[in-house]
Amino acid sequence: MSTFDFNATDIRGADVDLAKYKGKVLLIVNTASKCGFTPQYKGLETVYEQFKDKGAVVLGFPCNQFNSQEPEGEAEIGAFCEKNFGVTFPLFSKIDVNGGGAHPLFQHLKKAAPGLLGTEAIKWNFTKFLVRKDGSVYKRYAPATKPEELVADIEKLLAE
What we know:
This protein is an alpha+beta fold. About 25% of the residues lie in helices and about 20% in strands. The protein is built from four helices and six strands, in the order E-E-E-H-E-H-H-E-E-H. The protein has a four-stranded mixed β-sheet with strand order 4-3-5-6, with helices on both faces. It has a two-stranded antiparallel ribbon with strand order 1-2. It is globular, with a radius of gyration of 14 Å.
């Protein structure tokens, strides 16, 4: 199974077949607007701007499972991200990343790249997954890992 085998609903309610990203490196992140890591939106946008014309895309998936730090609806989330951080990378509808209702994409990502000690559960907002051009998951990064710290890995995967 590949990351490109999944569909997700974008922040405007449209169904997106992730196969449209085949051949690109993906940085997939569960996000939140009221989190201590929320300023990472700026770093994610910087990474997106740096690599969008070179074959890498950032995909943001808002999630309200961690301390209810994403309580707003999609329209408010999109407006917040654009106004406060200039976000232009693709954002998706709010999803669950853990539990029985976890989005199938995140079930796949967690299984392919477990966290510390092999745990699959996502611990907090802004957990990041880097995906190769073939759709295989390269690595999981902790919420505290800043987006700019992934530049070398993104460059490596773009060169593959």
